[in-house]
């Protein structure tokens, strides 16, 4: 190849001179460092280590110092970091929305402004319930048919009692509840204590006495889906009875026959009058509801005097019925 340019030779010579100068300077520094320290072996090794650290730091600063903070991380790490930040932000937003939803539900369900303390709300609920005991509508849960129920059925019934009582506490015009045929040594009582926190302090009446001997028979109305008479309104002079029966074998007309044995009036919810059957995949239609669903209908009607609105709250579409207006 041709002879290198003069400029290239000059650069090479400058580089060699610069390298030689750096080596000489390094040797001088090392000799100077050794001379300054104690002549012992420990002092020499310590000084040499310090010199190595300084040189290493200078080398690191020259070669690896980033121009920006992002240069420390690879693109993959940055991408993962952004992804994680999005997840954290989404969780925070979801928690905030859930908190606002619960707050809105509390306002809607209680009908009271949320600035009131829990103590005030408890005292207000107690006042309403005690007022219902003297002048409100009365509802009796007949628990005299639980002897032949399985533990699973008893657990379901205990859960229904809990939900019924919870709905009654939220009502602006609550009912006064009686649990009749209810003994403290029964499996149902033990199940209620186990499943329902604070059950022993529920504001309602518990009695071992049968509902048919506790009230005058002419004041009783047994609510059963097998009745021929539709319930028209909620009368404060009547005592409405719900059969506390969870029967997975579905024995028909149990509560209806019991009412007839005691010559007590019967009534059914006006589902047939305000609702129609709707088509579904299983062709399933049933007017049998849990006691808390029946209570929600009675309570809503007592407050609104509107059967369609009350039935809509208690009868789900899974039962195979919808309101007539919705079909039309």
From TrEMBL:
Name of the protein described by the UniProt record: tRNA methyltransferase 10 homolog B
Region listing for Disordered, in residue ranges: 1-28
One Gene Ontology MF term: methyltransferase activity
Keywords assigned by UniProt, alphabetized: Coiled coil, Methyltransferase, S-adenosyl-L-methionine, Transferase
Catalysed transformations (reactions): guanosine(9) in tRNA + S-adenosyl-L-methionine = N(1)-methylguanosine(9) in tRNA + S-adenosyl-L-homocysteine + H(+)
EC number from the UniProt entry: 2.1.1.221
Class of enzymatic activity (EC top level): transferase
InterPro entries registered for this protein in UniProt: MT_TRM10-typ, MT_TRM10-typ_sf, Trm10_B_MTase_dom, tRNA_m1G_MeTrfase_euk
Gene Ontology biological process terms in this record: methylation
Family matches, as CDD domains: Trm10euk_B
Organism placement in taxonomy: Eukaryota, Metazoa, Chordata, Craniata, Vertebrata
Domain spans labelled SAM-dependent MTase TRM10-type: 125-322
PROSITE patterns, A to Z: SAM_MT_TRM10
Role played: S-adenosyl-L-methionine-dependent guanine N(1)-methyltransferase that catalyzes the formation of N(1)-methylguanine at position 9 (m1G9) in tRNAs. Probably not able to catalyze formation of N(1)-methyladenine at position 9 (m1A9) in tRNAs.
Keyword check for Coiled coil: yes
